[in-house]
Design goal:
This protein is an alpha/beta fold. The protein has three domains: 45-401, Zn peptidases (Aminopeptidase); 408-519 and 579-584, no CATH class; 525-567, no CATH class. 35% of the residues lie in helices and 24% in strands. The protein has 16 helices and 19 strands. It has an eight-stranded mixed β-sheet. A six-stranded antiparallel β-sheet has the order 15-18-14-19-16-17, with helices on one face. Strands 8-12-11 form a three-stranded mixed β-sheet, with no helix packed on it. Strand 11 (360-373) and strand 12 (380-397) form a beta hairpin.
Length: 588
C-alpha cells in the first residue's frame, strides 16, 4: 500500500494561491451577478413606497399624500415636490406655479417609469439649489396607479419584454385595464385618480409605459395628445412647439426618439409609414385633454434592456419638465385662453378619423424586416434583422378630422331617474343643479336608430359603436328634483363627450343607458289586424310607406309586417330608444 504524499511548504504555498484566486473569482462572479441583477430589477411596490416615505423624512418640501382607495383596498399615494412648502393645489395655481403630473404603473407590467420617477424625485430633491425647475414647477408623482397589479408580481405575463426580473400584471383586482376606464370609471382606482386630477388640475401630464409592436433602433418613443382634437390654441402649441422641443432635447441627450411605433399605415412593418395614436377619453391622456392639459405618453421599447429603458424614461421626464419650465408662463396662459375659447364655442366636434390626405416625412431608424418560412406555423413569419439597421424617410400621418358635429346647447336636462349619471358627472367636478319645481321645457332629443355592439365584453361592458341617431324636438315635463347641467363651465368638452350619445366614449356607448333599448309593450296579431287596417285607412302617408316597404319584405312573417304598422302608429311607445337627455338651446 502506497504511503500518503505529504504537502511540502512549496505545495502549501501553491495551494493557498490557487484557493485565494478561486475565492476571488467566486466573489467577482457574485458581485457581477448582483450588479447585473440590480440593473435588471424593478422595486416592488412596498419598497418603492418606503423610498418615497424616506424622502419625506429627509426633506420638508415634499409630501406623500394618501387619496381615496383602490380595488385592492389600499389608498393611492401622491408624492408632491413643492419648494415653497405649499401643498394646496388651488393656492399653487394662484401663485403661478405650473403643475407637472407624472403617472406610473397604469400597466404595472411596464414598470420603467415607476423606478425612473423615483430617480427623478431623488435628483430633484438633492439638486434643488442647482436646478431652476423647482422655481416655477410643482411635481406630482403617482408611484403606482394600479397598485393591485403591482402586487401581482411575475416574470411571464410580458412575454415579449426584455426584463426586469419581476414586474406587475396589467389587469387590476377586477381584471380591468385601467387605461380604458376614464369615462366609465368602473374601478375605485380610477375614481380616486380622477379626484386627484380634478383637484390638482395639472398643466402637463406624463404617463409612463413600455411599448409593444415592431423592432427598431430607438429606446424611447413618444405619444403627444392628438393636436387636432384639442382646442386650436393648445393643439397648435403641442404640435409646433412642445413636441418638437422634446425631440430636440432628447437628441441633445444622445437619446434620439421617434413617434410611437404601433400602427403602420398600410403594412405590418414601419417602412410604410407611421400613424399617430388617437387617444379617446377612455384613456387618461385623452381624458385630460378635455380639460386642456398637455398630455404625453412615454413608450420605452420593450426589446431594449430594462436599465436602458429606465434611463431613457428618466431622460424624457427630465426633457418634458425642462420644456415645461421654459414655457411655464405660456402653458398656463394658453390653458386659460383655451378654456375661454371652449366656453365661447358654438359647435362641438367629435368622432375623429385619420386624414390620409395629410402627412409629413420623418427620418426613421429601423431594422430590415424579413419574411421567411416559419418553423412552427404553415405561414411566413416576420423577423427584424438587427445586423441590417437603416435610416430612411417614411411618412408620418398625424392629422385627424372630426366626422360629426353638434351645436352646443346652453343646458342639458337629465331626469333624476338617472341619478347614477349625475353622480358620475359630479365625480368629474361637473356642476349640476336640481329643478326646483315642476315645469316644462322645449328641448332637442335623440332617438337611437341603429348601432353595433361588440360580441364579447370589452373592459366589462358590451360597448356600442357606429351609433346612428335621429333628432327630434319635444316638450319635456321636468319634475322637481330633475337635473339641469349648465354647459358653460370648465368641463364643457367632457360634458359633451359624456352625454352626446353617438360620441365614441359616451355614457350611452359604454352601456349606461341600455334600458332604453328594450321595448316594453307589444300586441297580439289576431287583435291588432283589424286596428291595423283602420290605421292604414286613416293615414295616407303610412299606407304608402307600408306598401312600398312591403314590396321588398314579402317574405317577412305576418307579425313582422304588422309590426311595421304598429311601430309607425300612435300606439307605439314613445320612450323606446329615446335618449333621456334634453338639449336646451335658450336661457332658462
Amino acid at each position: 500500500m502506497a504511503k500518503d504524499k505529504k504537502f511540502s511548504p512549496v505545495n502549501m504555498k501553491y495551494f493557498s494561491t490557487i484557493l485565494m484566486r478561486f475565492l476571488l473569482c467566486i466573489s467577482l462572479c457574485l458581485w457581477a451577478h448582483q450588479a447585473l441583477s440590480q440593473e435588471n430589477r424593478s422595486l416592488p411596490y412596498p419598497q418603492l413606497l418606503k423610498e418615497y416615505e424616506n424622502l419625506t423624512k429627509q426633506y420638508s418640501w415634499c409630501k406623500l399624500i394618501p387619496y381615496g382607495k383602490t380595488d385592492c383596498g389600499l389608498p393611492l399615494q401622491l408624492f408632491v415636490i413643492s419648494r415653497n412648502g405649499i401643498f394646496d393645489p388651488a393656492r399653487l395655481h394662484e401663485l403661478g406655479y405650473t403643475i407637472v403630473f407624472i403617472n406610473n404603473g397604469i400597466h404595472p407590467g411596464e414598470p420603467d417609469g415607476m423606478d425612473a420617477s423615483l430617480d427623478f424625485a431623488r435628483q430633484t430633491l438633492n439638486d434643488n439649489d442647482k436646478s431652476p425647475l423647482i422655481k416655477k414647477l410643482v411635481f406630482c408623482i403617482l408611484p403606482a396607479f394600479n397598485i393591485d397589479g403591482t402586487l401581482r408580481r411575475n416574470n411571464f405575463s410580458r412575454v415579449n419584454q426584455n426584463g426586469p426580473e419581476e414586474y406587475g400584471f396589467r389587469g387590476n383586482d377586477r381584471n380591468l385595464d385601467l387605461n380604458r376606464d376614464f369615462m366609465k370609471m368602473d374601478s375605485q382606482n380610477t375614481l380616486s385618480l380622477i379626484s386627484i386630477l380634478r383637484k390638482w388640475n395639472p398643466d402637463v401630464f406624463i404617463d409612463t409605459h413600455v411599448s409593444d409592436g415592431a423592432d427598431y433602433q430607438y429606446t424611447m418613443t413618444l405619444i403627444s395628445t392628438q393636436h387636432d382634437k384639442m382646442n386650436h390654441l393648445t393643439g397648435s402649441f403641442i404640435k409646433k412647439t412642445f413636441t418638437p422641443e422634446i425631440f430636440e432635447s432628447m437628441k441633445k441627450k444622445k437619446d434620439a426618439i421617434s413617434p410611437y411605433v404601433e400602427t403602420f399605415h398600410d403594412s405590418e412593418i414601419p417602412d410604410s409609414g407611421l400613424t399617430a395614436f388617437m387617444e379617446t377619453p377612455r384613456f387618461v391622456s385623452g381624458y385630460l385633454s378635455l380639460f386642456n392639459c398637455f398630455a404625453f405618453i412615454s413608450e420605452s421599447h420593450m426589446l431594449k434592456p430594462f436599465d436602458q429603458r429606465k434611463a431613457s424614461t428618466l431622460r424624457i421626464i427630465q426633457s418634458i419638465c425642462e420644456i415645461s419650465y421654459k414655457h411655464s408662463d405660456e402653458i398656463r396662459e394658453l390653458r386659460k385662453r383655451a378654456l375661454d375659447a371652449d366656453l365661447a364655442a358654438s359647435s362641438f366636434y367629435y368622432n375623429w378619423k385619420l386624414d390620409e390626405s395629410q402627412k409629413e416625412m420623418i427620418s426613421f431608424n429601423g431594422y430590415k424586416a424579413i419574411f421567411e418560412k416559419s418553423a412552427i406555423t404553415t405561414h411566413d413569419r416576420l423577423r427584424y434583422d438587427r445586423s441590417q439597421p437603416y435610416t430612411k424617410e417614411i411618412p408620418f400621418y398625424d392629422h385627424f378630422m372630426a366626422t360629426d358635429s353638434l351645436p352646443i346647447p346652453k343646458f342639458i336636462y337629465l331626469p333624476q331617474a338617472w341619478e347614477n349619471i349625475g353622480r358620475m358627472l359630479e365625480v368629474n367636478h361637473i356642476r349640476i343643479t336640481r329643478v326646483r319645481e315642476d315645469s316644462s321645457v322645449s328641448a332637442q332629443q335623440f332617438y337611437i336608430e341603429d348601432m353595433k355592439t361588440v360580441s364579447n365584453p370589452y373592459e366589462g361592458h358590451y360597448l356600442h359603436y357606429d351609433i346612428k341617431k335621429r333628432t327630434t324636438t319635444n316638450t319635456i315635463l321636468m319634475r322637481k328634483g330633475d337635473f339641469i347641467i349648465d354647459t358653460r363651465q370648465e368641463g364643457i368638452r367632457f360634458i359633451m363627450e359624456a352625454l352626446v350619445p353617438d360620441a365614441n366614449d359616451s355614457y350611452f356607448a359604454w352601456g349606461f343607458f341600455d334600458s332604453i333599448l328594450q321595448q316594453k309593450e307589444w300586441f297580439s296579431a289576431y287583435i291588432f289586424e283589424d286596428l291595423a287596417k283602420q290605421i292604414l285607412a286613416e293615414n295616407v302617408e303610412l299606407n304608402k310607406s307600408y306598401h312600398e316597404w312591403l314590396l321588398t319584405h314579402t317574405d317577412e312573417d305576418s307579425y313582422s309586417q304588422l309590426y311595421y304598422i304598429y311601430s309607425h302608429s300612435k300606439y307605439f311607445e314613445k320612450s323606446y330608444r329615446l335618449f333621456p337627455c334634453g338639449f336646451i338651446y335658450y336661457e332658462l
